[in-house]
Amino acid sequence: MNNLITAEGFEKTFNFIKLIQQGLVVTVLLALLTVIIGFILGILLAIMRMTDIRPLRFLGQTKSGKLRKNRFLVFLSKFNPISMIATIYVEVIRSTPVIVQIMLIYHGVFGLIDLPSFTFFGFISFERFLPGVVALGINSGAYLCEILRSGIQSIDQGQTEASRSLGMSKVQTMRHIILPQAIKNILPAIANEFVVIIKESSICYTIGVRDIMSAVESVRGAYFIIMEPLLVAAALYFCLCFPTSKIIAYFERRMSRGDKR
């Protein structure tokens, strides 16, 4: 295989321009759908981690309301199954490689499901695309959970108490008071996660998703060249990630103007 960079290599690479364009569309769709799934999952996980549901709370206190001296019973009284499930999920996902998660989802979960075999937009295979989106969404949800949780906890508790004194429910308080402020505070971290998703989506070519890296493999298989298609792929990822980060930074500045007055 020729590792020298030549004009002829770029010419051969652009013979696959249609495949590269299709890969670009697939990459953008993967990132957008992953962010949506990850954000919804992240909110649910963050709320689960912050719940105070302790079914064994009574074990930590005597009938008179005093704290028991038995440390084991006190430990059991702090058991929160909802928070524990979310915590285990987050820690497992954050401690395992993305490629392993994608393979497990594709072969272990969707391998047991007979997905319909069809394409949309004429070139995106549903049975390959869906497992990739689900796997990336599951991964992103774990990271967005911690980002959202830190943002929610950064809001002054007094605002929650004030909204409750006005008769607002917990859901209304979270929706209208806490989340808008939290999202503004963590917008840079969310933007960074979106950029990371765009780059991590390249791993989906390993399960047959026809993204940008799949086009690179097609060029390599046809002409036995690798440097030129890789440089084209790097340029495309840069053109996706750099403007995205700048656009988010612009909106962040716009949103923070009110805080400086």
Describe the structure.
- The chain has one domain (7-252): Orthogonal Bundle (MetI-like fold).
- Helix content is 72%, strand content 2%.
- The chain is built from ten helices and two strands; from the N terminus they run αααααββααααα.
- It has helices at residues 7-13, 17-50, 71-77, 81-94, 98-109, 126-153, 157-165, 170-200, 212-223, 227-260; strands at residues 119-120, 124-125.
- It has a two-stranded antiparallel sheet.
- A hairpin with a 3-residue loop joins strand 1 (119-120) and strand 2.
Task: Walk me through the topology.
Layout lengths: L6 H7 L3 H34 L20 H7 L3 H14 L3 H12 L9 E2 L3 E2 H28 L3 H9 L4 H31 L11 H12 L3 H34 L1
Antiparallel strand pairs: 1-2
Helix pairs in contact: 2-4, 2-6, 2-8, 2-9, 4-6, 5-6, 6-8, 7-8, 8-10, 9-10
Series of secondary-structure elements, N-terminal to C-terminal? HHHHHEEHHHHH
* Oligomer category: single chain
How much beta, percentage-wise? under 5%
Top CATH class: Mainly Alpha
The backbone outline, from C-alpha atoms, is elongated
Largest sheet data: 2 strands, antiparallel
Number of domains: 1
In a few lines, what is going on in this structure?
The protein is mainly α. It is built from 10 helices and 2 strands.
